[in-house]
């Protein structure tokens, strides 16, 4: 029995020369931390991803809500491709050009109001991205509904944006660009094109990536439906990267 067939509802994967991995970062490869900068990359993850990339002839990507620069800080040049900000920015190869969607900037009035909300609700953290702003309330859970009301008011006044639910956060970002967009973008070109996409994520922001992978004939896996936690994902990737081709099934 292959490792894939041990997962509920799924059969065998194609061999590694026909498979591509598209992996979320926070909550999937690493555990969620109190702040984005305090996550820990567990021992062995980088080695597993390097081995996996060698087996799959480079077809390994990380697709994250973080900016690409933050993924580089934690993972270096280990993933072949990286998509950041939920698909707004895509780098298709190591050291390659970062392609950014042509999107409207977040209105300055929203950013000023976001900063005021952080003062009004101690523990709220504001994360500014190039085309989005994130209202983190992990440090102030009771503030979540009030922040959502403000965010809903913003997007009601400007339909170019929408509110993306995340774990203990609301991200106000341009409409029409998501992790599914990133999956489709990467799967159009080498080394991903023509392969069986395996997308792994952990929350609602990953559902677009899962749907895109399935629509392309692949599979979408999610914590906790298919894996108990990031440690289980890491163990599975480590086993795949160390095993022979027969580990992958037919």
UniProtKB/TrEMBL annotation:
The keyword Hydrolase applies. Removes the phosphate from trehalose 6-phosphate to produce free trehalose. Pathway: Glycan biosynthesis; trehalose biosynthesis. Its cofactor is Mg(2+). It catalyses: alpha,alpha-trehalose 6-phosphate + H2O = alpha,alpha-trehalose + phosphate. It comes from Novacetimonas maltaceti. GO terms for biological process: trehalose biosynthetic process. Belongs to the trehalose phosphatase family. Its EC number is 3.1.3.12. The gene is otsB. This is Trehalose 6-phosphate phosphatase.
